[in-house]
TrEMBL record:
UniProt source species: Paenibacillus athensensis
TM ranges: none
Protein name according to UniProt: Arylamine N-acetyltransferase
InterPro entries reported for this sequence: Arylamine_N-AcTrfase, Papain-like_cys_pep_sf
GO function term, MF aspect, one: acetyltransferase activity
Length: 289
């Protein structure tokens, strides 16, 4: 896999708010992970706009260094490339997200990642590193089965019933999905997921074609912008705010999620808002609101 240039590493770290590269360590891995989920949101914006970005590593890194973002194939693809360039031992895996009320699966519609730290003691050498789930862990999880509290959310790590020697991330009951199952087999990179990306990006059956969704984690909770609804989860529970104007919507996108819509002109941003508002009004009528 192509490594990042020194210029790309500097730009990526600058986007993360990290001053400089350090030798591989658990502490630096945690710092990078926290910065990534705070500053680079999981989002469906380009798919919603009908302008999906390719998932090859080169373009995914350009998204991150260019002030944009993406979803799991972009986020974990780019982050994995950064970590490898910094000297970490990275492995990509096929995964599958289990929506609430549906069965577990490993269908390749999620790109997962593990990182090995050979210098750490047994039990702390391999870590589940996933910055591509949106409603995701704030920090890496050790590949040891158990429960792990992070802010107001608790995650579980167990054996997967979907693949021999696979593992399952069990989400907090308050989370946006039930869990994620991962296969142990190593895949060469995001290019192995082109078929899944095409479905998510262009198919009428994609859940993201008509859903404007941006998610971000932080130390004490998470933020989600779903259409015109800004949902904030923290220690005191969930708070929802309806954004009724384009100015408020763009303000939350920029101030909370760091998403400035740099790829879009003023007219295109207005078109995105109008589409989002129309779908929001349809949703409200369906709910009798």
């Amino acid at each position: 896999m192509r490594m990042l240039t020194e210029e790309q590493v500097r730009a990526y770290l600058q986007r993360l708010g990290v001053a400089e590269a350090q030798p591989p360590s658990r502490a630096f891995l945690f710092e990078l992970h926290r910065a990534h989920v705070e500053r680079l949101p999981w989002e469906t914006i380009d798919i919603f706009a009908g302008r999906p970005a390719a998932i090859d590593v080169r373009q995914s890194v350009e998204l991150m260094t260019g002030g944009r973002s993406g979803y799991c194939f972009h986020l974990n693809g780019a982050f994995g490339a950064l970590l490898r360039t910094l000297g970490y031992q990275v492995r990509w895996h096929r995964g599958g997200v289990q929506p609430k009320g549906e069965a577990p699966r490993i269908n390749g519609f999620h790109l997962g990642m593990t990182v090995e730290l050979p210098e750490e003691p047994p039990g702390e050498r391999i870590w589940l590193v996933d910055v591509g789930l949106g409603d995701m862990p704030y920090e890496p999880l050790p590949m040891q089965f158990g429960d792990y509290a992070q802010g107001p959310l608790t995650y579980g790590l167990t054996a997967s019933g979907e693949a021999d020697n696979g593992w399952r991330l069990v989400h907090d009951p308050l989370g946006a999905f039930s869990g994620v199952d991962y296969a142990p087999d190593v895949v060469p990179g995001p290019g192995a997921f082109e078929r899944q990306h095409e479905m998510y990006s262009t198919s009428a059956d994609s859940p993201w074609i008509n859903l404007f969704l941006v998610r971000q984690r932080h130390a004490t909770g998470s933020n989600e912008l779903r259409g015109c609804m800004w949902n904030r989860r923290g220690p005191q529970g969930m708070e929802a705010t309806e954004l009724r104007t384009m100015a408020d919507w763009l303000g939350v996108l920029g101030d909370v999620f760091g998403e400035k819509l740099v790829r879009y002109s003023a007219l295109e941003r207005e078109a995105l808002w109008n589409k989002t508002l129309a779908l929001h009004e349809t949703w409200k009528r369906a709910k009798g609101r």
